[in-house]
Amino acid sequence: MQSSNVLVIGHPRPEGLDIGAAFVPSFKEARDYLALHQPSVLVFGGGRKGDLEKFCAFATESAPASLWIVASEGVAPTALIEWTNAGRVHDLIDSFEDPELEAKLQSALEAGGEQAQRRQLVSLFEDQSTRLKRLKSELESRVQKRHKTLRKTLRTLDETTTRMAAFHKALLGIHRASTVLQMEKMLNEALHGTVEIEWVRVRFDSQSSLKNQSGHNILSVELPYQYDNSRGEVMFAKAEGKRFSADEIDFLQELSEALALALARLQKLEQAETVKGQWQATFDSIPYPLCLVTADFEILKLNSAFQEACAGENNFRDLIGKRCFEVFFGREFQPPHRLDSPFTFRNNRSTARGESETYEVAGQRLGLTHDNQSVQLILLRPITEEVRYERRILEASKLAELGTIGSSIAHELNNPLGGMLSFLQLILMDMQKTEPLYSEIKAMESATLRCRDIIQNLLSFARKQDLGDSAEVDLWHILERSVKLIELQSRSKGIDVTYIKEKPALVRASSNALSQALCSLLQNSIDAITERLTVEPQLHGRIEVTLESEQGKYLLKISDNGTGIRSEVRSQIFNPLFTTRDPVLYSGMGLTTAHTIVSDHGGNLEILSQTGFTQAIVSLPRLDQSLD
């Protein structure tokens, strides 16, 4: 059986406990194991009284340094008290199923480590004490022969004891120090009163020499290893005229070896901190939110971009251990599919200003583990602008294709419809309104006229807008003109249209065409509010128009509190002849025509909508871009 620092005896389901321990089923096998190994921690519970007592006696003798974690179930209280008083029991658990078993095992291992360190120190002191006793015995055996040398021998003994205390103090100091300067300070404090050292310096090849300082006697001891690729030495200085004895030289050489080990530890710590800092700097330099997560997507590490994106949290420590997607996208986040590495998906995220951003999420499993779980890298790249451009390209290509098809169909249908309309009108001229078929023939004429209007709209959409009358115009003038055209309709329905006119906003445009586009958008807002008023008569309808300047373009935003556009039809709103209202009353060409007009002016039309709110954003190039 493989050796382990932890021996678990009689656990009913050892396969469910992943703590790197050795498992035996009974106290008999445990005694056999203890005969070969020395575990730091023993974990056991109750059993037959005789077996338990024999095992405890055997464990006390064969593994005296081990700590016990006892499952109190089935163990006599008197035995627990006896073991506790004897210092063997480190902790108690209710049973092997105790959820705190692993934590208590870790505590016991740490306590065992501390005891081992104390035993090593005790062993060191015992060794030194043995050496002192041997010296004392030798001195006592020579007392009668060398009575005259007694004082000298006693003085040597006192000096050795003092030096050992100084050695111990120096060891503790240099191993606790975090810099070379602190090590020098600790050595100064430990040796000043013992070896009469004035100062201690740790010097490397790259530093200037201190050996030529006047007024001091300096002993240099070379360090037995390289520090930062430099050969080092320790210099001990006494006052001028004071020499180093042979014992002092040996003592200081031993101390220098211990100092070399401490410097090696310090160098490794510095290298580790440097690598850690470089890694963190690289991690933070990535401009996109990035984090390392467990298999359950709990955050282990994150970069500054992720922390800034989750500004609602206090600091990065508040984010550690939380599920990355719930923190970033909200508690209502649902993965679009099974997230098996590698994976990618897109998801929307609401900002603090209520806007929606689209992120592309990529996950990749790394060759790292944490708590025996694989570690994954999650990258969240903002692609809002990319999605917006994709949507614009798709809409433009779709409109171009539909325009071509509509133009072909319109030309093919115009002639037959013209003939049908002419014959129907001739028939109506020869009929009396009282005749039975008059109403049916009249309805056929109306239907034919509607078909003609639809075809004319398709032809208008297919033909590129004539912008021959384009000139330098003020968007405010075009807006005022458009508002006046729909003002009678909006007032009659109690809808307020508000805007605050500011300084001129100059663009190059066809006033008539652009006014037609804005009228279509305003009319859409009026229709949406009217539809909502039929359900909510108490609603106060509002249309708000704002004009903003941004990076060489103007953004004209028309917002209303109408019904909004259902998510399932938002991708079709620019299609010709598409309408969500009565097709008899609405042709479905308003938004299509507006989009075409705005595009022909080198701009873009975007519709944002949710329940109870819709906003049309018209962007047009500015003439006064030099003001940016």
Verbal overview:
The chain is an alpha/beta fold. It folds into 5 domains: 6-116, Rossmann fold, CATH 3.40.50.2300; 142-270, Beta-Lactamase (2-Layer Sandwich); 286-382, 2-Layer Sandwich (Beta-Lactamase), CATH 3.30.450; 387-462, Helix Hairpins (Orthogonal Bundle); 471-627, Heat Shock Protein 90. 47% of the residues lie in helices and 21% in strands. It is built from 15 helices and 20 strands. The protein has a 5-stranded parallel β-sheet, with helices on both faces. A 5-stranded antiparallel β-sheet has the order 10-9-13-12-11. Strands 15-17-18-20-19 form a 5-stranded mixed β-sheet. The mean pLDDT is 77.
Blueprint (SSEs and pairs):
Blueprint: E1 6-9, E2 22-24, H1 27-36, E3 41-44, H2 49-62, E4 67-71, H3 77-85, E5 89-93, H4 101-141, H5 150-176, H6 180-191, E6 199-204, E7 216-227, E8 230-239, H7 246-285, E9 290-293, E10 299-302, H8 304-309, H9 316-319, H10 324-329, E11 343-350, E12 356-370, E13 373-382, H11 384-430, H12 438-462, E14 471-474, H13 475-492, E15 496-499, E16 506-509, H14 511-533, E17 542-550, E18 553-560, H15 590-600, E19 604-610, E20 613-621
Parallel strand pairs: 1-2, 1-3, 3-4, 4-5, 15-17
Antiparallel strand pairs: 6-8, 7-8, 9-10, 9-13, 11-12, 12-13, 14-16, 17-18, 18-20, 19-20
Helix pairs in contact: 1-2, 4-5, 5-6, 5-7, 11-12, 13-14, 14-15
